[in-house]
Specification:
The protein is built from ten helices and nine strands. It is an alpha+beta fold.
C-alpha cells in the first residue's frame, strides 16, 4: 500500500498472552502488517485501545466514526503514530529544548539588569568634596569636575579592584550563558531536522492531530500542537538554525531501528530486503526479542 492509501481499519492483533501484537492495516479488501511489538506502549498512548482492552478479546480495532470520510486515516498517518509511540522525543525534543533556551534567556536578562543596576549605583554614590576644597560640585572648576566618593568599609583603590573583579565575573557568566544558548539553538535546529526526516513535517501534523482526536491520543495531540506552534514562531522570526539536509537524513535510521519500546515498523525491514517470494517468511516475528526478521 502507498503511504497515502485511505484505510478502512487498523487492527492490533494480540498474542494469547495479550502482551504483544501485530498491527495490521486494511484497505480495499487488502491487508498488510506494518508493525510488531509490545502492547503496553500503544495502550499508554491510545484511550480507544485502553477501552477495548478492558473489555477482553484479542484484537483492538481502530476505525473512524461511521459517515466520517476521514481522509487523514492513511497508512502514512498510522505509521507516523507508531513512530511517535516508539520514540516520542522525535517531536517533544524540539519544545523541550525551547524551554531550556527560554530559561537561559531569562538568566541573561537578569544578569544584564544586575549589571545596569550596579553601574547606576556607582554613578549615584554621594560626592564628599571637590578636589579643590569643600565647595559643592557645582561650584568647582567645570573643566576638572573630579569628585571623591566614599566607599563604605574600603579604600577607593580596594573598592575599585573589587568592582572590576565582580565585573569580570559577570562578563564571564554572560559569555557562558550566550554560548550555552547558541549550542541549544543548534541542537534545536537538529531536533527539528530529525523530526522532518522521520516524517513529521508540518504538512503531516494536521492528519496526525485528527487521528489523535478521533482515538484519544492525548500525548500525540499535545506534541503536535506544541511543535506546530513553535515551528510557526521560529519561521516568522527566522530563528531556525539551518541544517544540512544530509545531516537530517542521516538520522532517519534512528527512528526506524529497534528502541526501548520494543516496536518495529515493517517498512524499515522492507527497505532492507527486496520483495521476493519468501518475503513473508523473512518478515516473520521473533516474539522473544520483538524484532521483525
Amino acid at each position: 500500500m502507498k503511504s497515502s492509501t485511505r484505510l478502512d481499519s487498523a487492527v492490533f492483533q494480540l498474542t494469547p498472552t495479550r502482551t504483544r501484537c501485530d498491527l495490521v492495516i486494511s484497505a480495499n479488501g487488502k491487508t498488510e502488517k506494518i508493525a510488531s511489538g509490545l502492547v503496553n506502549p500503544f495502550l499508554a498512548h491510545l484511550k480507544t485501545a485502553q477501552d477495548q482492552m478492558a473489555k477482553g478479546g484479542y484484537s483492538i480495532i481502530l476505525e473512524p466514526e461511521p459517515g466520517n470520510e476521514a481522509t487523514w486515516f492513511t497508512r502514512g498517518t498510522v505509521e507516523r503514530f507508531v513512530r511517535f509511540v516508539s520514540t516520542p522525543e522525535v517531536l517533544e525534543r524540539v519544545y523541550t529544548l525551547e524551554s531550556e533556551i527560554l530559561q537561559i534567556e531569562e538568566a541573561i536578562a537578569i544578569q544584564s539588569s544586575n549589571e545596569i543596576g550596579l553601574t547606576m549605583e556607582n554613578h549615584k554614590a554621594k560626592p564628599v568634596e571637590c578636589i579643590e576644597g569643600s565647595r559643592p560640585l557645582l561650584n568647582c572648576n567645570e573643566e576638572k569636575a573630579i569628585v571623591l566618593y566614599k566607599w563604605p568599609g574600603a579604600h577607593p583603590a580596594e573598592a575599585n579592584g573589587s568592582t572590576t573583579q565582580e565585573g569580570n565575573s559577570k562578563v564571564q557568566l554572560m559569555k557562558v550563558l550566550e554560548t550555552r544558548k547558541t549550542v541549544l539553538q543548534k541542537e534545536q535546529g537538529m531536533a527539528f531536522a530529525r523530526a522532518v526526516a522521520a516524517g513529521f513535517d508540518v504538512d503531516n501534523l494536521a492528519p496526525l492531530m485528527s487521528f489523535a482526536e478521533s482515538f484519544g491520543a492525548a500525548r500525540l495531540m499535545d506534541a503536535c500542537v506544541r511543535f506546530l506552534g513553535l515551528w510557526k514562531r521560529k519561521h516568522e522570526t527566522g530563528q531556525w538554525v539551518e541544517i544540512e539536509a544530509g545531516e537530517a537524513i542521516s538520522s532517519r535510521s534512528d527512528f526506524s531501528a529497534m528502541n526501548a519500546s520494543g516496536i518495529v515498523l515493517s517498512s524499515a525491514i522492507n527497505k532492507q530486503w527486496p520483495e521476493t517470494p519468501d518475503s513473508n517468511r523473512k518478515a516473520g516475528v521473533d516474539s522473544s526479542k520483538g524484532i521483525i526478521l
